[in-house]
Amino acid sequence: MNAKEWAWASYDIANSAFPTVISTFVIATYFTASVAASPVEGQAMWAWMQALVGLTVGLLSPVLGAVADAGGRRRGMLLVLTLLTALATAMIWFIRPEPGYAVTALLLVGIASIGFELGTVFYNAMLPGVARPEAMGRVSGIGWAMGYGGGLVCLALCLVLLVQPDPALFGLNREAGEHIRATALLVGAWMMIFCWPVLIAVRDPVQRPPIRQAISTGLSEIARLLRSLPREPVLARFLLARLFYTDGLNTLFAFGAIYAAGRFGMGFSEILLFGILLNITAGLGALVGGMVEDGLGSRRTVLLSLGCIILIGLGLLLVEGKTMFWVLGGGLGLFFGPAQAASRTLMARLAPPGEVGAWFGLFALSGRVTGFIGPALLAIATAAFASQQAGMAVVVGLMALGFVVLLTVRAR
């Protein structure tokens, strides 16, 4: 890999801390357990916030991707959205463990989540211009692996420096939740420290049209793209497949900690250790998967990874002991990275040249527009059968549906 490819891949380090610490393991748990009036109400409020984020990202990402293609301002937009995400994340520090702060907390997390999701559109769209065609799988896989490594280190720092020490370090007040709230400050600073290599090394075109012209051209491009979707059956089927399996993957990742806590009685520190294990195995999987992908092919890599996730997921529904849950959960992480990294590469390979940003906008849309379906189906099945296993079985079903649709995709 050359310097530009390494610089591009390193942005995953900056990006990974947000979903790991804020969306999944720390702040999400803090909100439902300490800020909201009750865990049930907190989970519902958090789910509605995520649904609104998904709708907003779904509406904006294709348009902004097309504007970036027309105006050549991917680096500038990535900078603005990274700053927005980091600032909104750091402000979570002011959210005290009181119900009166719930709406403000949701607003801040929602803004940060929108900035994070939209930023990935511009970041992903840089890949074809950074990596050689024959090395895109490897570069994308290394990026995902570096991201999991970054999320792992940031999560470990949160655990060792902030969450576990009692009395808390740095004069933090545990009764006021400051040891948890400080993780948001760490994530905001983390993003600002590690976002710079890609912004320095990957330049936008020197000749760029005025922003008004870029917006007009971009809107026309996305309208043309949507009209042409029926004439692009391969891309359409891939986006449909990704809609299902990404919804399943995201729901599995988001509710894995809740499932572990309820089914096996795992405490907060144990859940964080489980999150660290997942980041380790997922990083290793992404690294190895990226190397294998260029020879095996992006589509086959996604299919192989999804097939293994489905089988291991079924095993997780059947095990009774905590030890086997740890073993299977660690194995599950090995295939998370390849499934996500190879999906990104497959999109880059399928998208017509010159339209990559716009298609990555639709790629983001397919990953977010139905983001509420997985949690909703999980909730319905859990309530109907009074069983956490029944709810998680629906998630496995979503991934299986995406697997079947992806079988019909033939990559160019």
Q: Summarize this, please?
A:
The protein has 17 helices and no strands.
Description:
This protein has helices spanning 3-25, 27-35, 39-71, 74-90, 102-125, 127-130, 136-163, 178-194, 196-201, 211-228, 233-264, 268-296, 298-318, 322-350, 356-368, 373-385, 388-406. The chain is mostly helical and 412 residues long. The chain has one domain (3-202, 210-406): Up-down Bundle (Growth Hormone, Chain: A). Helix 2 packs antiparallel against helix 3 (39-71). It starts with a helix and ends in a 6-residue tail after the last helix.
How would you state the average pLDDT, rounded? 82
What portion of the residues fall into strands of 2 or more residues? under 5%
Identify the CATH homologous superfamily.
Answer: MFS general substrate transporter like domains
Topology order in helix (H) and strand (E) letters: HHHHHHHHHHHHHHHHH
What is the 3D form?
Answer: globular
CATH class label:
Mainly Alpha
Radius of gyration: 20 Å
Q: State the CATH architecture.
A: Up-down Bundle
Share of helix, binned: over 70%
Number of helices: 17
Structural class by SSE content? mainly alpha
Annotation, overall tally of beta strands: 0
- For the record, the count of structural domains works out to 1
CATH topological fold name: Growth Hormone, Chain: A
Uncertain runs:
none
Between the first and last Cα atoms, what is the distance in angstroms?
24 Å
Q: Biggest sheet: strands, sense, closure? A: none
